[in-house]
Amino acid sequence: MKMCSQVVGILILGVFLLGGSPSYGQLSPTYYDDTCPNASSIVRGVIQEAFISDVRIGASLIRLHFHDCFVNGCDGSLLLDNTETIVSEKDAIPNANSTRGFEVVDSIKTALESSCPGIVSCADILAIAAEASVCMSGGPSWTVLLGRRDGRIANQSGANTALPNPRQNITTLKTVFEAVGLNTTTDLVALSGAHTFGRGACRFFSDRIYNFSGTESPDPSLNSTYLATLSALCPQDGDGTVLADLDPTTPDGFDKNYFSNLQENRGLLQSDQELFSTTGSDTIDIVNLFASNETAFFESFVESMIRMGNISPLTGTEGEIRLDCRKVNNDSSGSADVLVSSI
Q: What gap in Å lies between CA 57 and CA 143, rounded to an integer?
């Protein structure tokens, strides 16, 4: 685990210039200063402990924040388990046997409930955890805007349609980002840069090796040496759960190498390589910029993360502050009961 490589300062005034929902201004970096001043340090402490035994946890936690925000907005809906009335997003095609880190979120929530019960939302836990995970992996640090509240419903069908998937072309990726209010150039490329750490299972890219777009041939954009490496790791009709590094150069560090890999046609997923290999795409120049200038990538990534964290947040008295991130709050009769924070 690395120390944070730099701190990117974001003026609070700037948040009002980034666009988004009318409730955006209700998010604040000082939201818990009076009610749970140690919230961020508690989250970071649990994640630091998790890193000791799980080098992948940082990438897994930021992915939870992504997959939460793209469905119903940043409301913690991804964390809800199945019940008689909730069909969990965890079982959606993009999430099933893929998203992970839920136990770490549980540990963070337990620690926060012990210190300041009923105060910190699960949606905010994901936002804080995403920043901490990036920072601890050598990426930028930023001031996280807080004040999201937790949703009381899940949207599995939405998760099946709204989330980016590894086989999408550039046109579809742009449509997915535009649908949640993110821009289709810098936001798309910068947030895709989160694939500079973490792993991907063979089942998500084996078609690129053996039967790209039904051609019974490899993806022509794949570097031939990289193709051979992936073929050895993921033999045809082999174990689809075998993991490959999303960034084969520095797999556990948050840096600009993801973009350098794309320039060498060594993007693991089709959705990665599309950013650079699609002829005439306006994303190519951004890939080239980020590959040559890590500071530019870090600054754009921070701005895009703040924008993403503002996708339809519940604020004020909307939603609730879940006491358990896996389920909505209930009274003794089993009916849903909204818990209003004292904030």
A: 21
Q: Which residues are registered as beta bridge partners of 182?
A: none
Question: Running DSSP on this structure, what letter comes out for residue 311?
Answer: S
For residue 159, which of 83, 72, 65, 270 has the smallest C-alpha distance? 72
- Of 67, 90, 174, 208, the active-site residue reads 67
Share of the chain above pLDDT 90, in %: 88
**pLDDT-derived band of residue 281, with 50, 70 and 90 as boundaries?**
very high
Burial of 120 (0-12, 13-18, 19+ CB in 10 A): buried
Residue range 289-339, pLDDT digits in tens: 999 999 999 999 999 999 999 999 999 999 999 999 999 998 333 334 433
- Work out the average pLDDT over 243-247: 97
Long-range contact pairs involving 287-294 (C-beta distance under 8 Å, separation at least 24): 287/189, 287/259, 287/262, 287/263, 288/259, 288/263, 290/189, 290/190, 290/193, 290/256, 290/259, 291/256, 291/259, 291/260, 291/262, 291/263, 293/256, 294/255, 294/256
For this structure, is 67 an active site residue?
A: yes
Nearest to 208 by CA among 160, 294, 272, 255: 272
Cα of first residue to Cα of last residue in the chain, in angstroms, is: 35
User: Is residue 276 a contact partner of residue 283, using CB atoms and an 8 Å limit?
Assistant: yes
Tokens for 178, please give them.
Answer: 């535009």
Question: By three-state DSSP, how is residue 306 classified?
Answer: helix
Please write the tens of the pLDDT for every residue from 35-47.
999 999 999 999 9
Nearest of 197, 187, 231 to residue 211 by alpha carbon: 231
pTM of full prediction above 0.85: yes
